[in-house]
Amino acid sequence: MSIFTMKAVAITLSTAPYYTHPQPRKLHTGVVAADSSSSFSGSFHQTLGEQSLPQSECRDNKKAIRKRVFFLDVNPLCYEGNTPSLHSFARWLSLFLSQVSRTDPVIAVIDGEKGNERRRQLLPSYKAHRRKFLRHLSSSQKSSRGHVGRSHQVITDVLEKCNVPVIKVDGHEADDVVATLAGQVLTRGFRVVIASPDKDFKQLISEDVQIVMPLPELERWSFYTLRHYKAQYNCDPESDLSLRCIVGDEVDGVPGIQHVVPDFGRKTALKLIKKHGSLETLLNAAAVRTVGRPYAQDALTKYADFLRRNYEVLALKRDVDIQLHEEWLVERDTHNDTTVLSNLFKYLEQTKELTYNYRSNPDR
């Protein structure tokens, strides 16, 4: 038996989004936010929990700083590499709540059922290597349609007890839900911080949107901002999506154009995107005039549909049918954190033996 009591806290309305949330609390007061520094290599390995605040923020500490709302991308935190792991989730959540978000509002988002379906119809290789993880089950349990998600129940229960609302919209991946809600949060005057290792979120980076990434090699979270992005890629985030459509994304199973035109690498792609601004502008230009060397020109005209398909797969949707709730923006009550997380680690020690269900076409 799990040491957690699985309470029915979900609000479910047929096709409506699924979410759990704590009772409304006092209005969010906010804390000083971590921002970027002038050096990519020198500032990337910093966390708010260690109070390693950038110099630019120290100079501006007398100015009013807008409050932050964190989005926690749950699914990728449940893996050690490609191996599902509740221990990984527990470790990263503990560090995140204690060192990064603290009392700032946090909205957790998980993938909806069949969330990958639209993208996989466009590209069958999309995230085809991912597999769900399941508790060890008897043969009779495995035959039940309700066995999937035992671990998700534990995850949802832990987050809810830590006063973190959990959002799930069937038919949509967490990335799209985060992108949609982030836009709504920005219109309310907050800044957004997305807690995730997923590079898909780099297309959202701006002065008001940051990413905080788990760094396994350092066992801590680290902020990644607009300045970091420009220092790393020497272009604006607006170009990120177009660039990735050309070079592909091996992690997500999205092939780049170099698979069909080996000479067409990142350097050529970056040069063309920086000149033309976006993939669509580049493709339209290539259709009527020469935009690059013969191999690049031929590739852009011959494989235009290939590149546009990549765009459809990689672009985050920002129009998911989900509305922001005011109670998700309040200061997070942290008084349960220590007990809940301690119980989670004890539970994991008691249930070390996990087996995984391998499927030929698993959802993320």
TrEMBL record:
It comes from the Eukaryota. Keywords: Exonuclease, Hydrolase, Nuclease. The keyword Hydrolase applies. GO terms for biological process: DNA replication, Okazaki fragment processing. InterPro entries: 5-3_exonucl_a-hlix_arch_N (IPR020046), 5-3_exonuclease (IPR002421), 5-3_exonuclease_C_sf (IPR036279), DNA_polI_H3TH (IPR020045), FEN (IPR038969), PIN-like_dom_sf (IPR029060). The keyword Calcium does not apply. Residues 67-332 form the 5'-3' exonuclease domain. GO terms for molecular function: 5'-3' exonuclease activity; 5'-flap endonuclease activity; DNA binding. This is 5'-3' exonuclease isoform X1.
